[in-house]
Amino acid sequence: MNKYRRLIILGIVLAVLVAARFPAHKYFRKHVDWVTAVDDHPLNCLPCHLYREADGPFSGLLNEDYLSPYNLTLSGDGHSLYIIAQDGNSLLIADTRTGKIISEIPVGERPHTVLLSKDEKTAYVSNQWSDYISVIDLGTQKIVDSLKGGNGPAGLTITPDGKFIYAVNSYSSNISVFDLETGKEVRRLRAGNNPVAAGISPRGDQVYVTSRRTVPVPYGDPPRTELTVANTISKRVDDRVLFESAYIMENVDVTPSGDLAIATLIRPKNLIPAIQVEKGWMMTHGIGIIERKENGRTIQLLLDEPGSYYPDPFDIEVGPTGKFAYVSHSGVDAVSIVDLDEIRTLIAGSTQEELDRYSNHLGISSRYVRGRMKTGANPKGLAVSPDGRTLYVAERLEDRVSVYDLEKQELVGSIDLGGPKRISYARQGRRVFNNASHTFQNQYACYTCHPDAHEDGLVYNMAASQMGRNLANVQTLRDIGQIPPYKWNGKNQTIYKQDGMRFSTVLTRTESFSYDDLDALVAYIVTGIKNPPNYRYNPYGELTAAQKRGKEIYYRTHDNFGNEIPEGNRCYTCHPPPYFTNLQMVDVGTLSETDDPMLLDVPQLNNIHESAPYLHDGRAATLEELWTTYNDHDEHGVGNDMTKMQLNDLVAYLKSLRDASYYEPIDPEVYQASVGNKQEKKNKNED
Amino acid sequence: MLFSCGDKSIEGLVVFTGIPSGEVEESLAPEHPMTHYEKGVLYAVNPDDPGSSPNMLTGEFAAAATPAVSHCGAWLFFSAKKDKGSPWQIWRMDTRSGKSFQVTSFSEDCMFPVWHPAGRVIFSRSQADGTMNLYSCDLSGENVSQITFHPHRDIAAGMMYDGRILVNSMQTHPMAGAARFIVMRQDGTKAELFHQGEGSLVPVPVFSESTEGEVIFIEASRPGGLGGSLARVHQNRPLYTYEPLQVSGTFNKVLRTVSGSYLVSSTENGKGSYGISLTDLDPGVPGTLVFRQEGLHAIQPVLIEARQRVRKLPSAVMADSETGLLMCQDIKETMLPPPEGSETSTDAAAIRIVFIDGTTHDIPAEADGSVYMELTADKAFQIYTLDHQGNVIQGPSSWIWLRPNERRGCVGCHADPELAPHNRVPFAVKNPPVSVPASGDNTREGVKP
């Protein structure tokens, strides 16, 4: 930025500040009161007009490019630590003996997991947003190839013979099996909903794949989340283990003896009226266990305590002896040390009925949690040294890997990744978003219901007026800075109001955010949350024939019988690009008996394919159901004239919708004219 | 009302209640044993100068007791009697100037002040029937708000770091019970058991919480004595982590300081005068004496220092509401064994609500055992579980109350207190709540299920 430009900017800022202090003070006060919905927020222009700049002239000055370590892998000798820099789009390699980063290898966008070949000469990095796996020659530290399978590659594991990689495709919900000799995908297996991580048994006969979202369940049933068990011999799925009342199973590991497969999970209480936090009434967190034997059982155990919760368990690593497992809790900056022998004893001595009871028991963790180690902000991936004495913790929002002595349960060092030292406002807000200390007894963070700042696919009974009423489908936070108002009933005009005092009264039930934290949180929400690419339904930005036909239906002005569709009842009227919402409140006939009378905020449709279920109360399991089941009277757009094929096309188009940056506001008449001309030509040709 | 105590800063000093040790029995305020003495005087002493004479802070009061410090360290609260015949009231002293201001002005005793993080003070107010409930008011004594509503003697022992009030509570009606700790949010909602006495020991209204969640308190077997022994529980799991501390002495007060050591008032085996020391509560390491003087019990010490503020909890109470909502997920879920010769608890088919005024309602449970009720707020009630024939299976419960607009849920009746709810829609909430009103008067009837 040149000198004059900086001076101009400085002058503008000073002028605004002077104006705020003197002649326009009343106006500014009124404005800030409206935005924040309180009358004592500091009169400060910067949080809204400077720190929320995502791309403007100040953005480069205010924001930083952080690295954000995510997942880790250690070399066999424990001397090299491979670190995924999720925001840095690179693979970092650290020497654990010196605690220094020795190299950085750029990879694709939003890398997720790093895996080493058996000879440790090659590293594989899954790039979730770039949709391929980078193959890196560790000798030259160059990318030498890429593997292309399903969409959104995330977790990786390799068979003991080193011949096959199982790659978890988080967006297309399947598993790609790659033959490393040919570099080709040889099989694709269906996984659970939004699978993310893989672990392999010591003998290599089975691969366990976690998933985060529930499989489809009848409306009003608790979530059921699949842990897929793939057979590496047949390369088929052996089993689909459903964990009842659980979801967000982030990672999985198998004990060295192979007796237990253990995954992290969350047990939400979305079906119970959200009337209190006490006694695990909103969220509980723990592990899911599969006994790997004939007639082995499936068990869930909590890692929480009655007065203290350990939300957002992310990674689990079993130590080399198989006696202890380590679980990172991203929501409370802690790692739990879990005594697996005690768990084995507990399981062996318990009936299934008792185990079912333990799955909701907050005190049972005292039997097997041997300690908690405090970490830096937002611990994610873990790695245990081969001798089992050292634990490495990726502290995502610190740009640091911490090193713990597992015998002493003490922090003994850290590896600085070399990221920016300054904590930007948005970064502070991201920490607030991910940390549960803003909830009573740390029971959940914003992230818990909004993983990756998206939504968790559940419907909550928020009990706004009475218990059992006003069910709310969790909405994504992507781009929400652009699409006020907030809440389904649109009662909150700004994010400040959405996350203000009322938020703490009915949701977090502890002290509300400080204004500094609230400013930072808003800055993060409006600057830092992007839609992932929609490779699944719109990989190249060119619509398929079906999607094009669906687009024509979306923008149509006349129904199949030639009747003009009232403007207010056309898709694009309420859902215009680029966000596919007109920001208005409407009644489209979707209120149910459990709703109080209200209008509903028109939701955005960007990346709608990954936001099931649909409607404000999540009644529609699929987009199709919006028209086949919940639009009897054409109040939610004229659609009952559509043929099955037309509906398929419309849904195909909706699923193709991607980030708002790809769209310009469309003049429907211009679009219709162009479509109409084509249609006219087509009809003439057919004649 | 303004009252000068000498305009001297007491920041950094230890303030304690001194009572003549030879006159303990005579000086007891009989209805408030262990805490309030007719000859009590507040003194300040410098912890860094153990041999120094204490300064009298409340010489112009007939009696003073139970000093407590605001988290900012700016205010010292205490109970005091201006004249011998007048009731105890809450006062506050500016710790910089030493000036005192009267906070409460009731005709009943107001005692046991505790700082409220929203800039208020919580205190116990005596009732004519022998109960004491918790109230709060702002620093000028205005905007008084009642917090507890059951027939108990409630004494706020202090605030926990998570923002809840730890209350020493003893039932008085229909019969006297043993003191125990209950914990509740700052507006009196979500009250629940925290610790009940072990064996013949009952907790007294003293506790100290570390920032790591360790809660140390004093338990005694003889009500009315000056002290007891130390015990601890952990805040994370208080009902199952009780442990007596192996520290010799009889303790009147224990308070963790910001430095991590404990300020205690104690005497060796109950003999001699109570003195004040700073200690790590390590049995093998003697503490540092702060003050001890024969002939004077130095009790209830506090250190005038700023501390980490406890959480300021938002309140769900709405003054214009007259009811609260209570939902039980499954009344058959219980830890209690069925009474001998009775039906099993799993046969529970209904619950009975009996308000303190005698109003009784039977509410049948849904097929899944759930009940959902709208009850008169701020009125104590007890719960019984009934079988299909209307016979009582279990009950009565402890006294419970709901605050206006409070919405409260429980897993079962006397369910395992560490059990989180099952994630399923309770049948009962598919319909509006059953209305369960009290009669509207405040008379206390004998509770006869």
Account of the protein in words:
The complex is a heterodimer of chains A (687) and B (449). Chain A has 17 helices and 32 strands. In chain A, 22% of the residues lie in helices and 28% in strands. With 687 residues, chain A is of the alpha+beta class. In chain A, helix 8 packs across helix 12 (515-527). In chain A, strands 1-2-3-4 form a four-stranded antiparallel sheet, with no helix packed on it. In chain A, strands 5-6-7-8 form a four-stranded antiparallel sheet, with no helix packed on it. The longest helix of chain A has 19 residues, at 3-21. Chain B has one helix at 24-27; strands spanning 2-3, 14-20, 41-45, 55-56, 63-69, 75-81, 89-94, 100-102, 110-116, 120-126, 132-138, 145-146, 152-159, 165-171, 180-184, 192-196, 202-209, 214-220, 229-234, 243-244, 250-256, 262-267, 275-279, 288-291, 296-303, 323-328, 350-355, 360-364, 371-376, 381-386, 392-394, 407-410, 434-436. In chain B, strands 1-8-7-6-5 form a five-stranded antiparallel sheet, with no helix packed on it. A four-stranded antiparallel sheet of chain B has the order 4-3-2-25, with no helix packed on it. In chain B, strands 9-10-11-12 form a four-stranded antiparallel sheet, with no helix packed on it. In chain B, strand 7 (89-94) and strand 8 (100-102) form a beta hairpin. The radius of gyration of chain B is 23 Å and the shape is globular. Mean pLDDT of chain B is 89; it is low at 1-7 and 26-31. Classes of the chains: A alpha+beta (687), B mainly beta (449). The A-B interface holds A 220, 222, 245, 267-273, 275-276, 278-281, 284, 302, 305-308, 357, 360-364, 366, 440-441, 461, 463, 466-468, 501, 504-506, 509-512 and B 162-163, 190, 192, 213, 235-240, 311-316, 325, 327, 329, 372, 407-409, 411, 416-426, 429-433.
